[in-house]
Amino acid sequence: MTTESPDLPPPTEEGRLRYAGGYNLDFDPPIPCTCNRDCKSRCAGECGCEACSLAFAAYADICGWYGEEPFVPTEKHLQQYRDVLGPSKGSNQ
Ligand SMILES: [Zn+2]
Ligand SMILES: [Zn+2]
């Protein structure tokens, strides 16, 4: 038995490939990755995955993309995110 929030779904198989154990450990509690195989190699949460969405939000925050206006990610932002961080999986090969 664990004390994990019952609101969180289990990570998907694909999620386990992208994050150790399937969870984004940058957050507390860790967020399960629910990506699927159709996701971009570096998903920014387009699929509804909370882990990747928050990871992108954290990156956007570091970049100062959150200004006074509501931040709406464009292809340019997403492309930079993917270029800088590279694929989520296979980075240890
Ligand atoms: Zn994900
Ligand atoms: Zn995804």
Explain this structure.
- The protein is mainly α.
- The chain has one domain.
- It is 32% helix and 4% strand.
- Strand 1 and strand 2 (31-32) form a beta hairpin.
- The mean pLDDT is 89.
- The structure holds zinc ion (2 copies).
- Residues 35, 39, 43, 47, 49, 52 line the site of one zinc ion.
Short description:
By secondary structure, this protein is mostly helical. The protein has one domain.
How would you describe this structure in keywords?
single chain, mainly alpha, two-stranded antiparallel ribbon, globular
Give the helix/strand layout:
Elements: H1 13-18, E1 23-24, E2 31-32, H2 50-62, H3 75-85
Antiparallel strand pairs: 1-2
One zinc ion binds next to helix 1 and helix 2.
Q: How many structural units, i.e. domains? A: 1
Which descriptor suits the 3D outline? globular
Distance N to C terminus: 34 Å
The ligands bound in this entry are: zinc ion
- Number of separate helices: 3
Given helix and strand content, the structural type is mainly alpha
Largest sheet: 2 strands, antiparallel
Strand order of the largest sheet: 1-2
- What number is the mean pLDDT? 89
The helix-strand sequence is HEEHH
- Tell me the number of strands: 2
Beta-strand percent range:
under 5%
Rg from C-alpha positions? 14 Å
Report low-confidence residues grouped into runs of 5 or more.
none
Q: What is the helix content?
A: 25-40%
